[in-house]
Amino acid sequence: CFCTEEELDMKRKQAEAEGRPPQYDGTWRDADPAEVKRRMDAGETFTVRFRIPDDTTIAIDDIVRGDVEWDANATVGDFILLRSTGVPVYNFCVAVDDALMGITTVIRAEEHLTNSLRQILILNALGFPVPKYAHCSLILGSDRSKLSKRHGATSCDQFRLDGYLPNAMVNYLALLGWNDGSTKELYFTPDEVVESFDLNRVGPSPTMFDSDKLIWINGQHLRALPVEKLAPMARDHLVDQELLDSSVESNSEL
User: Fold this and answer.
1) Is 229 considered catalytic here?
2) 80 Rama sector, left if φ>0, alpha if ψ -120 to 50, beta otherwise
3) Residues near 186 by Cβ (< 8 Å), separated by ≥ 6?
4) Which residue in 54, 141, 174, 239 has the fewest CB atoms around it within 10 Å?
5) CA distances (Å), 121 to each of 14, 95, 101, 132, 251, in order?
6) Tens digit of pLDDT for each residue in 202-245?
7) Residue of 11, 37, 132, 149 with catalytic role
8) Considering just the CA atoms, what is the radius of gyration of the chain in Å?
9) Could you tell me which residues are beta bridge partners of residue 80?
10) pTM for this prediction
């Protein structure tokens, strides 16, 4: 495809003005091979696009979302595989990488659903098997928008500094969008989560990150710790927060 960025931008704006999806309109889809060769020989920049066969429908049985079906031409159109710099795009790299690594199940956010469509088309074209897919729903902040930095702590280390136990974090995060079919909420070790976890019980609805619930779960984990384990952890945390002198060593001093 020899369309320039300016031409593609004009096509996008025109499609939006006409209420159509802003996708490639196939300008170079049926180009004369001689004209393509002439332009390439002249050194014109170009991208390589994936030509989607007419009337192509792709369907998957998503582990989380159930049956998902796309009209490939209407959904994504002939998408780019190689940029004008010769660098392959994300979807091409991921599809090939998954295939060569023998990936059997892809678990990721629902935002990647249309990426899965592109990757399946690539896998089919290359003769690779298509993995199973599980597109999990987004985690939302307290304002019901997508969880982001503005909602608070953004790293595991920050949660540690705030006094949250690793096992409590695993416990809480496992419950975001999943349950074991009962009312159980406390899993005191990762092994307990692994033993109970079933991907088929992950729900398709968005889940809100509830800080109060995390605090409660962390409190339950803290209360369940024997004193001989809790005391040195409390000591280290208080020292990190500069609330206790580092010379304090023994449990009896605490």
Assistant:
1) no
2) beta
3) 171, 217, 220, 221
4) 54
5) 27, 9, 18, 14, 62
6) 999 999 999 999 999 999 999 999 988 888 888 888 888 888 88
7) 149
8) 26
9) 49
10) 0.84
Pairing of strands 66-71, 57-62: antiparallel
SS3 63: coil
- Rounded to whole angstroms, the Cα distance separating 9 from 103 reads 36
Query: Residue with structure tokens 């800080």?
Result: 211
Give 202: exposed, middle or buried? Use CB within 10 Å, 0-12, 13-18, 19+.
buried
Instruction: Kindly give the pairing relationship between strand 132-136 and strand 139-140.
Output: unpaired
Count Cβ atoms within 10 A of the Cβ of residue 197 and give its class: 0-12 exposed, 13-18 middle, 19 or more buried: middle
Strands 132-136 and 66-71: unpaired
What are the angstrom distances between the C-alpha of 213 and each of 8, 78, 175?
48, 46, 10
105 Rama sector, left if φ>0, alpha if ψ -120 to 50, beta otherwise: beta
Question: What's the confidence (pLDDT) of residue 253?
Answer: 56
Domains within the chain, CATH numbers bracketed: 5-136 (3.40.50.620), 139-240 (1.10.1160.10)
Phi, psi torsion values for 109, nearest 5 degrees: -75, 155
Coil, strand or helix at 13: helix
